[in-house]
Write a structure and sequence with these properties.
Helix content of chain A: 40-55%
Strand content of chain A: 15-25%
CATH architecture of the largest domain in chain A: 3-Layer(aba) Sandwich
Largest interface: A-B, 22 and 21 residues
Structural class of chain A: alpha/beta
Largest sheet of chain A: 5 strands, parallel
Shape of chain B: rod-shaped
Structural class of chain B: alpha+beta
Oligomer: heterodimer
CATH superfamily of the largest domain in chain A: Response regulator
CATH topology of the largest domain in chain B: Heat Shock Protein 90
Order of helices and strands of chain A: EHEHEHEHEHEEEEHEHHEE
Order of helices and strands of chain B: HHHHEEHEEEHHHEHEEHEEHHEE
Number of domains of chain B: 3
Strand order of the largest sheet of chain B: 2-1-5-4-3
CATH superfamily of the largest domain in chain B: Histidine kinase-like ATPase, C-terminal domain
CATH class of the largest domain in chain A: Alpha Beta
Number of helices of chain B: 12
Radius of gyration of chain B: 55 Å
Number of helices of chain A: 8
Strand content of chain B: 15-25%
Radius of gyration of chain A: 18 Å
Strand order of the largest sheet of chain A: 2-1-3-4-5
Distance between the termini of chain B: 71 Å
Chain lengths: 222, 505
């Protein structure tokens, strides 16, 4: 899951990034509307967390341009003043949800999850494939009722695969949804993470489709 | 609560009351005058026969008695004597004198004849008359049913000479001579008031009509005068109900009320403006406070969410500390502003040496300037002035602080202090990007930021210049800016030198 945080106040921006990365999302950041518009055009974000009050190009303008360019990332706007007109305006321009600043972190995370579920067409927090269960709300993964310890990256790949069980997820999509701009490219390649997942969840849990991508092996072959 | 008293009805009632008094006085006066004239006319009709009777019964018999011998010397015609008497009758005394002076002229006139003429007069005037003469008692009476019982007017009541009196509804002229001769000529059943009743009612009718016209006129006039007042009050009520954009229509003709409307409109506009500023200020202030508050909240919730590394906790505390400090600065600035606005903190004015003040400021700012690679250049004349030194220093620090932050690396911030005429002038100039003309006025507005992102990074409250301006104004001075894009900015603080004493070192 790839998220863009657009916020001009640096402290808040880095906080939001920190929080979202803690949830194992791949998070990019933009300090103003201009950068945001560039990035949304460049990367297939699942969600854009967007501050409204920004100099030059404000949040409303960003949403408007995004929708005009048919960029379908979910948009969560953060309003400072929280007036009804602001919220209505944002939603009417194409935002999917709003949150007033000074929010509770729990609520923020829940709203992000909700928006991402809708975006991925997943309708509940608990994902199941074979005997593996993944809880989006808690970030817990269990195999046959026993908790499995995954790294953030492994978890992110698993979420991508489990949100469309059986389907082949292209490598680049997996990569983009898992690796954000803060990662240096020298870090472990995708194969290493997939290999680790196989080790932890079962050798045939993830199948490789050479030249296409990866998919969950939904039917048990054992 | 005072009862509601309509200004309009007060004006109208006042006017009407005044009109009523005037009309009443005029009409009553007219009535009294008319009544007197009529009475005088009646009295006149009484005095003619009286003088005849006087002549016939009192003067002539005496004269006749004295001049019986010359009685026939100069005979005279009867008619002329009647004429003469009637002519002189308006003045009783003259008549008496004339009659007395011409005893001989009445040779042919017998008292009887003269009495006869008098009777005609009395009959014509429907009068009655009685004459008493000395010891003889009642010698003549006419028109009185019971003459013997008619009470002779007493000298003690009326005195000598002519008097008029009312006896019931009878009007009587009474003459009492020196020897007790008494004449009474009267007219029975005189009722002037009854005669005047119609006249009086007529007058009252006229009065009522005049009053009605006056009331109508007053109503029309006061209505016209008060219509703008009603309009003003209606508009003011709408404004009081919360529609601050409402204004009184000033398109009427120029008059005092239109002036009032203009004054009120100006006041309303200023109030609305002040309110709007206040609302904006409150909104800005809460927004500015919300930012650090939400930073702290998010940071704490993140740190408490699960077990964190020591390093992460450290950085969380650092973030919280920074946000809290920012919040504290903001709150302090807000408090200071509101105190200055409410004039709660009077200036502690004392003689200040400009050079000392500037040195303190320089000392505090050197560290920051060095870190930012900016050179400070202070050139201060050695003068003293009277001001709140702490506050002025605060302004200087604020201005220099801004200048340092807007200076490019290797830039120079020039601070000069001097006395120019009645003012101490402190200038702080930087080599920064400058400020566009359009923003010159706005930069002193509370929470106005020329470059939002940059001032956020250095954590300014956005109130520094606003506070500085308030301080300058409190001293009776001013704070202005001289700047153009790419030419740097120069802030000029001028404070009056209340007492200036050159310090010799």
């Amino acid at each position: 899951m790839r998220v863009l945080v657009v916020e001009d106040e640096p402290t808040i921006r880095s906080q939001l990034c920190k929080v979202l990365r803690g949830e194992n999302y791949a998070v990019d950041e933009a300090e103003d509307g201009e950068v945001a518009l560039y990035k949304v055009a460049e990367w297939p974000y699942d969600l854009v967390v967007l501050d409204v009050m920004m100099p030059n190009i404000d949040g409303f303008e960003v949403v408007r341009c995004m929708r005009e360019k048919k960029i379908d990332a979910a948009v969560l706007i953060l309003t400072a003043r929280g007036g009804v007109e602001d919220r209505v305006r944002g939603l009417d321009l194409g935002a999917d949800d709003y949150l007033k600043k000074g929010f509770e972190l729990q609520e923020f995370k829940a709203r992000v999850r909700a928006l991402l579920r809708r975006k991925k067409q997943v309708f509940k927090n608990k994902l199941r494939a074979r005997d593996v269960e993944l809880d989006l709300a808690t970030g817990q993964v269990e195999k046959a009722g026993r908790p499995v310890n995954l790294t953030g990256r492994e978890y992110a790949i698993l979420v991508e695969l489990m949100s469309q069980p059986g389907a082949v997820v292209p490598r680049h999509q997996l990569y983009e949804g898992v690796v954000d701009e803060s990662d240096d490219s020298i870090s472990n390649p995708l194969e290493v993470h997939v290999c680790n997942l196989r080790r932890k969840l079962g050798k045939d849990f993830v199948r490789t489709f050479r030249g296409r991508g990866y998919a969950l092996n939904v039917e048990s072959t054992e | 609560m005072k009862p509601y008293r309509s200004l309009r009805s007060q004006i109208e009632l006042g006017q009407l009351g005044l009109l009523a008094v005037v009309v009443l006085v005029l009409l009553v006066g007219f009535y009294i005058y008319e009544r007197r004239v009529r009475l005088e006319n009646i009295d006149l009709t009484l005095s003619v026969p009286e003088s005849r009777l006087l002549a016939a019964h009192i003067i002539l018999p005496r004269a006749d008695a004295r001049s019986l011998r010359v009685q026939a010397v100069r005979p005279r015609e009867r008619g002329s004597a009647v004429e003469r008497l009637s002519r002189g009758s308006s003045d009783g005394a003259a008549g008496v004198a004339e009659a007395a002076s011409l005893p001989w002229s009445r040779g042919s006139d017998t008292p009887r004849l003269r009495a006869l003429e008098t009777v005609e007069l009395l009959e014509a005037g429907q009068l009655y008359a009685l004459v008493w003469r000395g010891r003889e008692g009642l010698v003549f009476s006419y028109g009185v049913d019971d003459a013997e019982s008619f009470e002779k007017p007493a000298v003690s009541d009326h005195g000598e000479g002519r008097t008029y009196r009312w006896r019931g509804s009878d009007r009587e002229l009474i003459y009492i001579g020196r020897r007790g001769e008494t004449i009474v000529v009267g007219k029975a059943g005189v009722s002037i008031d009854a005669e005047l009743a119609t006249f009086g009612w007529g007058l009252a009718g006229v009065g009522v009509v005049v009053l009605l016209l006056g009331a109508l006129r007053g109503r029309v006039t006061s209505g016209r005068v008060l219509r703008p007042v009603e309009r003003i009050s209606r508009t003011a009520r709408r404004i009081a109900e919360g529609d601050l954009s409402e204004r009184i229509d000033e398109s009427d003709t120029e008059d005092e009320l239109n002036e009032l409307a203009k004054v009120l409109n100006t006041t309303f506009a200023r109030l609305a403006d002040a309110l709007e500023r206040q609302i904006k200020f409150s909104a800005d202030a809460s927004h500015e406070l919300l930012t650090p508050a939400s930073i702290i909240l998010t940071e704490c919730q993140w740190a408490l969410d699960r077990a964190r590394e020591l390093e992460d906790c450290h950085s969380s505390f650092a973030t919280c500390e920074k946000a809290a400090r920012h919040m504290r600065d903001l709150i302090e600035a807000l408090l200071e502003l509101s105190r200055m606005d409410a004039e709660e903190t009077p200036l502690t004015v004392a003689p200040v040496r400009l050079r000392d003040l500037m040195e303190e400021a320089q000392e505090l700012l050197t560290g920051l300037a060095e870190r930012r690679g900016v050179r400070l250049d202070f050139q201060v004349h050695d003068v003293s002035f009277t001001a709140d030194g702490g506050k002025i220093r605060q302004v200087v620090i604020n201005l220099v602080n801004n200048a340092i932050h807007h200076s490019p690396a290797e830039g120079v911030v020039r601070v000069t202090g001097r006395v120019d005429g009645p003012d101490v002038i402190i200038e702080v100039a930087d080599e920064g990007p400058g400020i566009a003309e359009a923003e010159h006025a706005k930069i002193f507005d509370r929470f106005y930021r020329t470059d939002k992102a940059r001032s956020r990074e250095r954590g300014g409250s956005g109130l520094g210049l606003a506070i500085s301006l308030v301080i300058a104004r409190a001293h009776g001075g001013d704070l202005t800016v001289r700047s153009a894009p790419d030419e740097g900015s120069c802030f000029i603080l001028s404070v009056p030198v209340v007492s200036k004493t050159p310090v010799t070192t």
